[in-house]
Amino acid sequence: MLVVRVVPVGRARLVGAAVRRRLVPALTGSAPTASILTTPARCNSQLAADAHRRRHKNVITGPDAVALRLHRGHLVVQHPRWPVDDAFFSLAWLRDHCRCRHCYDNSTFQRKTDVRQLSSVGNPLHFNVNSTGTVLEIIWHDGHQSEYSMRWLWENSYVGARHREQRQSRLWQRCLWDGRRTSAEDLTSVVYDSFMTTEEGVRRLMKGFLTHGAAVVTGVAPTPAATQAVVERVGVVQHTMFGGVWEFTADGRHADTAYGRDELLPHTDGTYYSEPPGVQVFHCLAHHGHGGETTLVDGFAALNSLHQADPAAYELLSRVPCAGEYRDPSRRLHMVGDGPVIAHRAGAEPTPDSLLRLRFNPYDRAAARRGEPAEVEAFYGAYGRLTELLWDARRRLRLKLRPGTVILIDNWRVLHGRASFTGRRHMCGAYMARSDVLSRARSVGLLI
């Protein structure tokens, strides 16, 4: 039975109704009996003032009640299943996130909202929760009607951001490592058949990739076509000046030190691009000779050490640009990419907890044409300090790539190198955009 209690509020200066009800808990699936408490709404300014003064006292009773009120341009929600006392939803944000057919195209997942109108969103005429307790309903000052799933609001708004991060950490956590405590056997390895035929195989590989910055698929046919199939199971091959899925030997075909036999110290690829490739894929198709072991270094672990030992160097490398370049006059190529050595997530504090990308390739550094003269010497000191950490042999994880083994490396985090070798070594590989890989991780439930 639905029980309705009406609380008188005095004079009838009504422009709508504010509704309080016990909500069917959207996050738990249980369904208690709903009781609705309805109060007439005053004019916008009076309503906000009254709601702020009452702070729900003498308005809503009962431990499971959901309370709604206006406060200084926000709709404030008190939800018994949400781990916050007051959830403040900006009225502009709510209007921007209306999902009706006039504001959002659900077939293309694109907005139709005119953002120029969002800076002057007035108080709504009416707001309440629907009879099933699952949907917030708003009638705006211009008569437009919006509906929001309470679950959707929690899962997609800034209100629940911190708690989404906590849920995310329970799915996987980044594991920093170095060669003293980690070996190739610690990297996640998935058999080709499982990877290609089951989503669980993809999920295992992606979880290992996110955790350690590298993961392996075994049992792959030693051909470029099979390698491409592995890549396309995760995302899309990123085409560059080297091609799509490329092959190389020590033939000097390109103006790049990778096309030789000498040792390559750990580095990241593509520092000469505006956005370096997100993932590096390698597959050794054949090797008739000795040496050529792949070396990996966890760049984020080294950056964590740098931040602890020399915060000033860390800060400088997070701010001062260091350009990379690739030149091949025979092909009329001169690529230049610019950006700091250390990049963090947008809007976050520049600390190791918010690391996004490391651009480190001393081989491909361009002429330093930017920066403050007073910081030049300090930059070389900071870059040298980081190089000492990254090239410390104790940090290196070594593995011998053999035909049938494909390795995926996070090029924004993990550096790769190669020992010198003899004989003929036939490799193939590819790049992938980071967005494609993260998209695949979301599809298997690893990113919220």
Automatic annotation (TrEMBL):
EC number(s) on file: 1.14.11.8
Pfam families xref list: GBBH-like_N, TauD
GO biological process, one term: carnitine biosynthetic process
GO CC annotation terms, alphabetical: mitochondrion
Molecular-function annotations in GO: iron ion binding; trimethyllysine dioxygenase activity
Pathway(s) served: Amine and polyamine biosynthesis; carnitine biosynthesis
All residue ranges annotated as the TauD/TfdA-like domain in the record: 192-431
Coiled coil: none
Reactions it catalyzes: N(6),N(6),N(6)-trimethyl-L-lysine + 2-oxoglutarate + O2 = (3S)-3-hydroxy-N(6),N(6),N(6)-trimethyl-L-lysine + succinate + CO2
Enzyme class: oxidoreductase
Residue stretches spanning the membrane: none
UniProt keyword list: Carnitine biosynthesis, Dioxygenase, Iron, Metal-binding, Oxidoreductase
Cofactor section: Fe(2+); L-ascorbate
InterPro entries per the UniProt record, alphabetical: AlphaKG_dependent_hydroxylases (IPR050411), GBBH-like_N (IPR010376), GBBH-like_N_sf (IPR038492), TauD-like_sf (IPR042098), TauD/TfdA-like (IPR003819), Trimethyllysine_dOase (IPR012776)
Protein name as it appears in the record: Trimethyllysine dioxygenase, mitochondrial
Native source organism of the sequence: Amphibalanus amphitrite (Striped barnacle)
